[in-house]
Amino acid sequence: MDNTNKDLREQLAATQLQLGASQRVTEEIAQYLNFNLNHLSQCDQPVSWLHGRLKEEIESSVYLQLRMGLSAALMALDKASGLGTSNEQKVVIDALYIEEIRKGLGKLLARMEEFSGSQLWDAGLFLGFSQNWLHYLLRADLILRAYFAKQKGVGFLQEAISLASSAVKAALLELDVGLVRIELFEPLQTGVEPVEIHYNLRKLPVVQNLIQERLSKGNNLFVVDVISFPIRLNGKQIISGRAAVVNPSDWMQNL
What we know:
By secondary structure, the protein is mainly alpha-helical. Helix content is 64%, strand content 9%. The protein has helices spanning 2-32, 37-41, 46-59, 61-81, 87-95, 98-111, 119-130, 133-147, 155-174, 199-202, 205-216, 248-253, and strands at 177-179, 193-195, 223-228, 231-233, 236-239, 242-245. The radius of gyration is 24 Å and the shape is globular. It starts with a helix and ends with a helix. The relative contact order is 0.10.
């Protein structure tokens, strides 16, 4: 009898160790993929819940694809922010709304587990565009590629933003949401509202030099900044576009 009780205690201890290990692994996976840890801690069976949710997201590939892409991008953004910044880099970060983008990514990822089907667009991505931070993300990707491709010190930030932007664009394609592209240094498209360039972006030497170089070649009235991107759904435009266009005389007077 004593031997039997000893064996049962040993089996119970081993089971508890395995359960504890499973819960730790579950928490690490949830943290890496930016699930809502508060929600997970309230589940009676967190291991089973996470397994079930991941299975749902795998079956609806756009969910898991977006979660993995944005989670990797968020990790890269955190690393980029920890590399230190010069005064000029701080101006770039402010002009590109990097902190707003980071917060928006985190909130979207934490809420994705509440969505299913078309809710990813209705309550997730559409809300992000309505709150502007998804416009900021696509704009930051555009500006970093156009103005800062050859600049030192922003490479890691550029890759992180590009990763997040690509994940969002891929999700929009799978959801049949039309993102109308606006390119810098091209004429303003019909239907896109002209606005002013961001004041912090305008005062950066690299931006001034590239715009001045194009003006000196006779180019004018081209797009130099994008505030919002046109979005189409079911053949109708549901979000309007706004972009800054350089005016040669005004630009020279206000340098």
